[in-house]
Amino acid sequence: MPDPRTATNPTTGGNPPAMPKIIVQFGGEEWAVDLREGVNVAGRSPQAAIPIRDASMSREHCEIVLEAGIATVVDRGSMNGTLVNGTKMDRKVLAPGDKIQIGKAALFFEEKQARSAPAKAAPAAGTPVVGMDDFSVWRRVSGGGLRIVIVLALLALVGAGAVVAFNKFGQGATVKADPSNLLGTTGWFDPGPENAVVGWSVKRGLASRIQIAEGAAKQGKTCLQLEKSGANQDLVAEVACQESLVVPSGSSLEISAWVRSESSGILPALKVSWMASRTGPVLLEDLSEPAPGASDWTQMKRSFAPPPGATHGQLSLVAVGRAGRVLFDDIRATHGSGSGLTGASMSGYSIVATEAGVLNVAQETRRIMNNVQVYLASDKEGTIPQAAATAGRVQVDAATKKLTATGKIPSPVDLRPVELEFEASGGKDSLLLGYRLRGDSVKQVDRLGLTMLIPGDLKGDYSNPVSRLWFRTGSGDFGLEISDGLMRVSSEYAAGGGQRVHLNVTIPKGASEMAFGFHLKSGGGGSLDPMAEVDKAVTEERMSDALELLGDLLAATREDQKRQQIQARIAALREAESTDWQAVQAQRFVAELVGLKPYFETANQKLGQYEKRWPRGKRADACKAERERLASGLAAAAEDRETLRAHRLIDRAEEHAKEGRKQLARELCDAVRRHYAQSGSATVRVAELLKKLGSE
Facing residues of 67 across strands? Predict the structure, then answer.
């Protein structure tokens, strides 16, 4: 039966109509691929219509859809994107001559003529174009049947020789196929061009590098070798699988890997980043418990349960700690039915937490905050997140509905544990999140903070540091208030949507314990500027609150100009406090001078105003002494001026009696009786003095 791809066309009397072509340039070679009607997938998968063995592209990187002679390129959610004529595109109708860039390969649509690599002779007409290091035959041309048979025979001989050579010279056990492995039917690593690792890449922005290591594998002949950098951004190094794994509803991911490390200062771990789709956003990061590396091959195993809303998981190999070499082999991922994450509901909010206490917060299944976790940062060494905590334990109290978590976060300085305690509880229309970190290792840490992903936008302009955030999600507006003190805020847009928000605070020198909390409230709004909070406190006569806010603001501010402004406000408030205290003392002095009750009452009011304005001032003891002095003066004070004059005459009569001038004392008493009889208190004193004079 004739091959339909090489049969002549009766209407043309010759070859079949020419189909549009893709000209591929990669690795110094160039070849052509005829496009078929329908979907033509391009990627590093051997089953792709346009297979290219490039470690920097996805297995199914993009597709070229040919319909009625019109070709359209569509990105398939690739990690590194698809560029058409230098511009990143999700979809574009192609015109002759358009250049498609995927990974390190360039694809030209239809117009460009293929040529072979400079180092090789040009293929004769009808010769299959072989452009990959695995010698795959890419296309068949009319009249090339004999040549194809010859090439296939040569390939069979080469393959048989490779098997013999491997059995004789290769190291490691024979690799067995594992059809259930989501990463492929084998657990070993295929070398790509220039010994690149196919399907795996180091997280963007890191200085660490990976390559294929030969002769040191646990299975087969090759394994993945991570050369971990000592740079501070590489304190937690990640090697990510370029393909995200689909997770059916109700399933978990069962991950295992063999690891070997040359340094005990490196803590390897497995990580799954749960995503709402193939391209993100990341909903939750979950790590197996990092453990010290060993010189012998050691297996890591962990069941990872997805949070609500997650459909894909991206697997990463993680190494926490210092610089060194780590080997990974036999990576396996299968679907399982592992138990779900710990969850709780309180005050209308739903929370799920990993073993390390990393949180997702939702309201009626709508996401509010994702991947909420604390982190420890050293300016010199780098940052370690809560997800890398060891000995994690999460519990829910059935009676109080509180969710608590404990664990130990490795210090970014020397990996010694920092004790972590966390509690989530419901308040009145709010969610309360409280964190406490303690231990001698805290003294080595420069900063601690909180990071989260919000599925919306951060609202308002923030002048660091801040006391609250306001953000908008699909569930509405929310405010996140810092319970005590101020924190610096920064944010960036995340892949797949939303904003990644970071809050941090400098740890006081020598502190071995830090605690901070947050109130999540619906509605948001309110003042976002801490200086506006200061002004509000001053307007409301809360001068101590204003002074404390300014003190926190000064401690968290680094810019010289802002520090000068804050210091000027602090000086003005302290001067106002001194003026208020002088007014209290002046009022008391007048009251004592006049000796009337209304004056003492006014002095008491002035002291009360001072204590209200400065409740936590430095004069607490002085205020107490002032209050006692005013109380004593008030008890002895006269009610009006007439009574005051009567009492002063009685005071003089008492002095005369004391000095022996009894007759003069009696005359003054008689004068008080005649002129100030209406003053009851004066009359009582006169009677007491005359009685005393009579008895003498």
Answer: 70
C-alpha 275/C-alpha 244 separation (Å) is 9
Q: How far apart are CA 200 and CA 208, in angstroms?
A: 13
Q: Report d(CA 384, CA 375) in Å as an integer.
A: 6
Bridging pattern class, strands 298-304 and 91-93: unpaired
34, 126, 150, 488 from 144: Cα distances, Å: 16, 5, 10, 69
Residues 132, 137, 140, 145, Cα dihedral to 10° = 140
Residues 6+ away with beta carbon under 8 Å from 667: none
Whole-number CA gyration radius for the chain: 41
pTM across the whole model: 0.60
Taking CA atoms, 273 is separated from 78, 283, 310, 329, in Å, by 16, 7, 10, 20
- Crossing angle of helices 620-636/560-594, nearest 10°? 20
Terminal Cα distance for the chain, rounded: 153
Beta bridge partners of 342: 353
Asked if residue 600 lies in contact with residue 634, where contact means CB atoms within 8 angstroms, the answer is: yes
Neighbours of 425 (CB within 10 A): 18
The Cα–Cα gap between 546 and 423 comes to: 29
Q: Helix 560-594 to helix 597-613 angle, to the nearest 10 degrees?
A: 160
Residue 25, SS3 per DSSP: strand
Q: Of the ranges 58-72, 91-105, 131-145, 358-372, which one carries the lowest mean pLDDT score? A: 131-145
60-69, 180-189, 231-240, 658-667: least confidently modelled range: 180-189
Q: Would you say 486 and 545 are in contact if contact means Cβ atoms under 8 Å apart?
A: no
| pLDDT value at residue 658 | 87
Q: Where are the beta strands (DSSP E) in 428-568?
A: 430-438, 447-454, 457-458, 468-473, 476-482, 488-493, 499-506, 513-522
Q: What is the pLDDT confidence band of residue 356, given thresholds at 50, 70 and 90?
A: very high
Cβ within 8 Å of residue 598, ≥6 positions away:
none
